Amino acid sequence: MNTTPPPASATTLADPDTPFAVVDVHKALRNIERLATRADRLGVTLRPHVKTAKSPDIAALMHGGTPCPVTVSTLAEAEAFADGGYTDITYAVGIDAHKLPRVIALLRRGVTLRVLLDSREQAAFVADASREAGLAVPAQIEIDCDGHRGGLKADAPGLVDIGRILHEAGCLDGVLTHAGESYFAYTPEDQRLAAKNERDSAVAAAERLRAAGLPVSTVSVGSTPTAHAAEDLTGVTELRAGNYVFFDLVMAGLGVCRMEDLALSVVVTVIGHRPEYGWIVTDGGWMAMSRDRGTAGQAQDQGYGLVLDLAGNPIPNLVMSAASQEHGTLTCRDGADLPNLPVGTRLRILPNHACATAAQHRGYHVIDSTRPTDPAPAIQAHWERITGW
Known about the structure:
This protein folds into two domains: 26-244, TIM Barrel (Alpha-Beta Barrel); 255-384, D-serine dehydratase-like domain (Lyase, Ornithine Decarboxylase, Chain A, domain 1). The protein is 28% helix and 24% strand. The longest helix is centred in the middle third of the chain and has 24 residues, at 188-211. The strands form two sheets. Strands 2-9-8-7-6-5-4-3 form an eight-stranded parallel beta sheet. With 389 residues, the protein is of the alpha/beta class.
């Protein structure tokens, strides 16, 4: 863990200007260990998706500081992690021809950077670029396991043709799928079924390719809900997940984690009151929290986030119910009385979607909830995020 201290003027969460993002390293480590243990039990490689935290310092928690296989969502992430010594990277967004020079530059540095595709056109330009560069760009075929975003169905007529185009150029690495609809699997049984369907789809696609004489070395599956629900990953080689490092209110609403597992929060300050409306106003709007309302369709709508005191204790019934760009509105549920929170009071907001909230910030102030919080949690370090594409 990088223990680079924050500026001397910011020693506790009471010091920096608000709003700012906070990571509880104790909770993050506990979440990391939980999924690592599951992956070991299931007999697969864990390839964390770093798109949530976008932080080499947080990724370093996963393997005791030793670079491990990772998944990225941008080439900026791939480049930053390569600079940090990571050499086994999967770029899990459909590849565009204009991005291949950056991919090839990383390959020339000795980084195994896999790309993702789901069409003959993409396979053709990856194959052509590989021949022109004189080195193979490893590629995975995206499989659509649940009607979410891109990919081919496992029984799609074009699957084998795409595999053959890649294989003839030495580029075929395997197949990859992501059970995106698992974020709407509201019961443990639904999540288990989503995990089974995810595995079955990926394995079926791999078997079709192998039956056509094409080699498939990687069969990659994963989402945070299915990674925690899978019971059998026979035929799968690796498991991906990203949100699990922080978790969030969506994951808690699905029962994937407990509320006390949420490692990311945003510190805001009370800047006003509108008692005639039952409002407490803070300086943390959607620019600090994001516009994500991912819990709106769940049994309990958490608005824009749940409210904690600065030490991390929940304030009963208080929710961030509305937001404008730089203002957050806190209200009470069920007719409860507003707590007495004077102007200047600092609070922490738990987010709906950790990925979206983290993306609003340039870095994290790091605390450890196992340490004393009097007068406020001490800042252990400040970790920068990777930005851009």
